[in-house]
Amino acid sequence: xxxxxxxxxxxxxxxxxxxxxxxxxxxxxxxxxxxxxxxxxxxxxxxxxxxxxxxxxxxxxxxxxxxxxxxxxxxxxxxxxxxxxxxxxxxxxxxxxxxxxxxxxxxxxxxxxxxxxxxxxxxxxxxxxxxxxxxxxxxxxxxxxxxxxxxxxxxxxxxxxxxxxxxxxxxxxxxxxxxxxxxxxxxxxxxxxxxxxxxxxxxxxxxxxxxxxxxxxxxxxxxxxxxxxxxxxxxxxxxxxx
Length: 242
Prior knowledge:
The protein is of the alpha+beta class. The longest helix is centred in the N-terminal third of the chain and has 19 residues. About 45% of the residues lie in helices and about 25% in strands. α2 packs across α4. The strands form 3 sheets. The protein has a 4-stranded antiparallel sheet with strand order 3-1-2-9, with helices on both faces. A 4-stranded antiparallel sheet has the order 5-6-4-7, with helices on both faces.
């Protein structure tokens, strides 16, 4: 994956997510509730809940809101039951798209996701149709100019799988999902703060889209991301929106 396109694409995606702060709160609350329901309300014993709380802090979700939703999920307060569903499909130019949802109404969600795909030039596929093109992993991305030697030493010592330097000088650290927290903590201890740090679905290969195709793909992604039940959208398109 070309370094420059990756950095530009990730910064672009991060910027668009920052613009949707209200939606970010809703997503984080759902993630907290599902994590707490599945693994218990104690963050020290529940890695997924720890990551969800980190996300909550990153979007300035109030601590009492976090606690209240953990209580709801663990049965201390009455709450809504959400289930996780993954949809897979194709976008413009055959680009692969994964849509992770949390919903209390599966019928509504699949109808909305299918409509978004079909109306904007995509095609909802079957389970497993594109997931093989992605790797579930921890990803930490450092801005161009960060010391490659420093990142490599701290990351590999902490158990990272790989360190990749992009054409533009950005540095990407990849980890197993289970090693993500340890590697992130080791890098922060070494004074290295990632611009992006998440457990994600990383595309193994990418498809370059430019001009009208890139604009149409971005529109499709925006429409999907704005659906109420959508938590995350992953894709393998490199968008040149210039």
